[in-house]
Amino acid sequence: MEKTDVTLPEILLSAGKDARTAKAISRMVQQGQARKLAPKVYTTNLTDAPESIIARHLFEIAGTLYPGAVVSHRSALEGGPAEDGSLFLSYRHSRNVTLPGHTLRLTQGPGPLPEDRPFIAGLHIASEARAFLENLASARARSGHKKTLSREQIESRLDRICRIHGEEALNELRDNARRLAGDGRWKTEFERLDKLIGAILGTRETRGLKTQAARARAMGLAYDPDRLELFQVLFRALLERDFRHRPEPRRRGNEWDTNRAFFEAYFSNYIEGTRFEVEEARKIVLEGEIPTNRPADSHDVLNTFRIVSNPIDATRTPQSYEDFLELLRQRHASLLAARPEHDPGRFKDKVNRAGQTVFVLPELVRGTLQKAFELYQGLTEAFARAAFMMFIVSEVHPFLDGNGRIARIMMNAELSADDEVRIIIPTVYREDYLGALRLLSRESETDAYIRMLERAHVFTAWLDFDNYADALAQLEQSHAFHEPSESRLRFSNGAEI
Question: For the chain, what is the total number of helices (H) and then of strands (E)?
Answer without folding.
Answer: 20, 11
